[in-house]
Structures are given as C-alpha cells and as structure tokens.
Design a protein that fits this description.
Distance between the termini: 77 Å
Shape: extended
CATH architecture of one domain: Up-down Bundle
Strand content: under 5%
Radius of gyration: 22 Å
Number of strands: 0
Order of helices and strands: HHHHHH
Number of helices: 6
Structural class: mainly alpha
Helix content: over 70%
Length: 172
C-alpha cells in the first residue's frame, strides 16, 4: 500500500470525523460525515476491496447521509442557547466514560493475553460477489433487516414530530 495516499486519506477521514462530532451546525456535520465516509472508501480502494468501497459510497455516503440531511432539514432545528452542564449530566458522562474504558480494557486485555488462533481460510483479494451475497442473505439477514426497520421507524418518527398541526378550535 502506498504511504502517501494512505496518510492523506487517513488525515481526511480523521479530520472529517472530528468535524462531524465537533461542529454545531447539523448540516455541516452531516457533510463532514460524508467526507469521512468517502475517505474510508478511499482506504478500502487502497486495500483492493473495491466492492466494499463501492457499497460504502452507495449505501452510506449516498443513502444514509442523504437521509440525515433530509431529516435535519425536515426538523428545521433552530440554534438555541446552550445550557450549562448539570451534576446529573456530568455524572452520567463519567459513568459512560468509565463503562467505555472498562469495555476497552477487557477487550484489549483479553486479546493481549490470548494465544492467536490459526487464521481461517478467507477469500482472496477481490472476493467474489457471490460470497458477499451468501453471507448477507444467510448469516447477516436478521441484523440487516433490523437496521432497515430501525431507520424506517426513525424517519417516520421525525416526520410525525416535524408535522405542524393546525390548532383545533373548541366546538361548543
């Protein structure tokens, strides 16, 4: 793998990911997410995983980010004053950080102590579309369906929340 394109795409991906988290404007953050996903697809191309790169661009960069932008614009969220952090929110953030740290320590600690298993035979570079299709429609069918339904429910919820109802007058 060439070093310069790798470092360039890694910097783009990391910079856009930080921008997606740090920016206050939601539309700008969604476009930073798009840049991060495009950088990841470029990294997949460097790894000769062309199918994964194309799927990342089509599914995530094309559909999911467009859905995010559509939902953000549909909600028509106005910028509001930031509220100061309360003790409860700081305590919740501390607990979440501790749980995340413990999970990372357990995960990486287990991997450092374990003896590496022999590698199973995997498809070679440029794996066939048949292999991905079989895995998608056998092993990973339920998770894909669940994610699809969750996205559908989220989009319907946003549409219901953003709908402006006319006030109903009392009929007396």
């Amino acid at each position: 793998m060439p070093a310069l394109p790798f470092y360039l795409l890694s910097a783009i991906t990391a910079g856009c990911a930080i921008g997606a988290v740090a920016l206050r404007n939601t539309v700008t953050a969604a476009f930073c997410l798009l840049g991060s996903l495009l950088g990841m697809s470029g990294l997949f191309v460097l790894l000769d995983a062309y199918l994964l790169a194309a799927l990342l661009v089509l599914v995530y960069a094309g559909a999911i980010v467009a859905l995010f932008v559509f939902i953000v614009m549909l909600l028509d969220v106005r910028g509001s004053d930031t509220r100061p952090a309360t003790r409860v929110s700081l305590a919740a953030a501390g607990v979440a950080f501790a749980v995340l740290g413990a999970g990372l320590a357990v995960t990486f600690g287990r991997n450092l102590l374990a003896t590496p298993a022999p590698l199973a035979e995997a498809p070679g570079l440029g794996a066939s579309l048949k292999f991905y299709g079989e895995q998608l429609f056998t092993t990973y069918l339920l998770p894909v369906q669940i994610v699809g339904f969750l996205l559908l429910i989220a989009m319907l919820g946003v549409i219901v929340i953003s709908k402006r109802f006319a006030p109903v007058e009392d009929a007396k």
